Amino acid sequence: MEEKKSSPAIVTTRQLSALRQIHAAIEHLRSGQWECAITLALAAEGQLPPTGNVHLVKALREHAPDLAKDGTLNLYRDWLKHWSKDKPDEIEISAFSVTIAIMRAISKFYAVYGKSSAEMKTFGGWCRQRGYLLPEDQT
Predict the structure, then answer these.
(1) 27 near 87, Cβ under 8 Å?
(2) Could you give the C-alpha distances from 134 to 1, 6, 70, 78, in angstroms and in order?
(3) What span, in angstroms and rounded, lies between the C-alpha atoms of 109 and 106?
(4) Which one of 8, 20, 41, 99 has the fewest CB atoms closer than 10 angstroms to its CB?
(5) 112 Cβ contact list (under 8 Å, min separation 6)
(6) What is the pLDDT of residue 23?
(7) Cα separation of 139 and 133, whole Å?
(8) Alpha carbon 63 to chain centroid, angstroms
(9) Cα–Cα distance between 13 and 3 in angstroms, integer?
(10) What is the rounded CA–CA span in Å between residue 36 and residue 38?
(11) What does the pLDDT profile of the chain (139 residues) look like in tens digits?
């Protein structure tokens, strides 16, 4: 009788999983796979625990509540995750929308853990070059 081999497995944490998803989202943005980038980034954001610390979505909900109310805040996330007869079969996704999804995840990661990775910092620099974020001396 042949011995069964067990399949490989990993033990992970929410922090490590979110970190890996954010890094993968950044890579997907760079390679043009924007649907994957949004899905991974917002999955990372969603799996992180609630925090009283400021992060992008918390600030948007407080200062632009209509975005949450009318569905704009999670438009792409919901379209990518859930089929609906009331939603179109085609959607246009901008680079800025992908960037915002990744920044949502990064800002919540930082709010929860108080740290970021080299990849996150590089991404922040990339965003600043494009005018998406304030220069570091103004943040």
Answers:
(1) no
(2) 65, 50, 27, 29
(3) 5
(4) 8
(5) 15, 48, 49, 51, 53
(6) 98
(7) 9
(8) 20
(9) 31
(10) 6
(11) 666 677 899 999 999 999 999 999 999 999 999 999 999 999 999 999 999 999 999 998 888 888 877 778 888 888 898 888 888 899 999 999 999 999 999 999 999 999 999 999 999 999 989 888 766 654 4
Residue at token pair 């009331």: 86
Q: How many residues does the chain have?
A: 139
Q: Give pLDDT, residue 34.
A: 96
The one-letter code for the residue type at 136 is E
Report the alpha-carbon distance of residue 90 to residue 87 in Å, rounded: 9
> Where does residue 90 fall: left (phi above 0), alpha (psi -120 to 50 degrees), or beta otherwise?
beta
Q: Two tokens at 96?
A: 């800025």
Per the structure block, which two tokens stand in for 111?
């709010």
Q: Phi and psi of 87, rounded to 5°? A: -115, 150
In angstroms, the CA 128 to CA 103 distance is 12
